[in-house]
Design goal:
2 copies of one chain form a homodimer.
Chain A: H1 3-20, H2 27-34, H3 38-50, E1 54-57, E2 63-66, H4 75-82, H5 100-125, H6 129-139
Antiparallel strand pairs in A: 1-2
Chain A binds a DNA duplex through helix 3.
Chain lengths: 140, 140
DNA sequence: AATAAATGTTACACTCACTACAACAGTTAG
DNA sequence: CTAACTGTTGTAGTGAGTGTAACATTTATT
């Protein structure tokens, strides 16, 4: 799954958890609320649980519950927890690295893209889940 | 081709043109210097020509030649000229938009991603081809 | 202890975009 | 008129992303 898709999925799920708090929700329940496949949700939610953002409880009567308040959770934390590949997909010309100029320019761009990646991450750090919920409920 | 791949390809090609200036280079010649396929180069170079960044001359003895000095060309111009899809690939959870909450959160993220896209573009605007050439030749 | 209801994880089919390249039509100098 | 170019279209192969199912594992309940 792409980082941006996972991020929006994570926000939707966590938003449900915020509304249900302090009651836990199962992946099936969240699936019913969002339309997102339950297996897919579990994949993402288990990553969020490992990052300590939510708590997962196995077994009958279990489910997921927030482990932090919405204003303590920011998009960067969510993004970090679920990231497998970078948001700014950094492809540079494939395999012509035997040519010195290519190698140098590739390196330059990899550095630049990392730089941009850092910019994106700092921006996301400034946006809390509470911000998102508030904005979604008022401005849209 | 992804935007970032095309961008690095464009920079490599334009870098060759800068060194050859005022002599024109054919796509075959640039291919020889960079290892990049000539057809692929022509695809990108023709886009740069349409944007007025380089000039293309058809027919025997033709080729490509810079139409601006390296310090007048910035990465944003190159990126703009070759862009087909956005750098920050903005996927949000696909097709569950019948659920109002989803639609709102999707819209929120599309807005956020556009915002980030703009940030990336302004950053690229500050980097000229001359900067890249200078940096590549000294720092790497 | 047995059962039912959860999570956690793996696997898989399917689609689709990307990549790299070839081929050829169109254009121009000599 | 020919040779050397660009411009554009098409295409086979590959790899990543998507959506989902299946099953192993864990735990509350009775």
């Amino acid at each position: 799954m792409s980082a941006s898709l996972k991020l929006s999925t994570a926000v939707k799920a966590v938003h449900c958890l915020a509304r249900a708090y302090p009651e836990p929700l199962s992946s099936t329940e969240i699936s019913g609320m969002t339309g997102i496949n339950a297996s897919q949700l579990r994949l993402i939610l288990s990553m969020l649980a490992k990052a300590g953002i939510i708590q997962s409880m196995q077994g009958a009567g279990g489910g997921f519950i927030l482990n932090m308040t919405p204003d303590q959770i920011n998009l960067q934390q969510l993004y970090c927890a679920i990231e497998t590949r970078k948001a700014f997909h950094l492809a540079v010309s494939g395999n012509h690295e035997q040519i010195p100029l290519n190698k140098k320019i590739n390196t330059y761009f990899l550095d630049l893209f990392e730089d941009i990646q850092r910019d994106i991450e700092s921006k996301m750090e400034t946006i809390s889940l509470a911000d998102v919920i508030q904005k979604v409920e008022t401005h849209y």
